[in-house]
Amino acid sequence: MLDEAKVLKPGNKYRNDKSAQLFGKTIAQFKKNKLADVIKQISFITLTSDGSTGSSITEQEIVFVRFSNEGLISTKFVGLGTPVNQDGT
């Protein structure tokens, strides 16, 4: 851990699966809200998605949003999930 490398002693309170899950969800929600705030200011966006079917015959889709903000073109990950209709409709 970084804290241990810096010779800090974080203890065991935050070194478990539940804390890691909570940290991950909190960071993801913060990033999601930040991206939503940026997209609200944009006039035009492009959504790109790509799908694949794994060996379990479960289709998965990944979605990206692309936009220009103050002259800088950005492509950001939006989500990954299983489509409601897996027949392309």
Largest sheet: 3 strands, antiparallel
SS-based class = alpha+beta
The geometry reads as flat
Order of helices and strands: HHEEE
* Cα-based radius of gyration, to the nearest Å: 19 Å
What fraction strand?
25-35%
- Spans of at least 5 consecutive residues whose pLDDT stays below 50 are none
H/I helix tally:
2
Separation of the first and last Cα atoms: 46 Å
Number of domains: 1
Provide a compact summary of the structure.
The protein is of the alpha+beta class and 89 residues long. It is built from two helices and three strands.
Report on this model:
- This protein is α+β, with helices and mostly antiparallel strands and 89 residues long.
- The protein has one domain (13-81).
- Helix content is 31%, strand content 33%.
- It has helices at residues 2-5, 17-40; strands at 46-53, 59-69, 72-81.
- It has a three-stranded antiparallel beta sheet, with helices on one face.
- The longest helix is centred in the first third of the chain and has 24 residues, at 17-40.
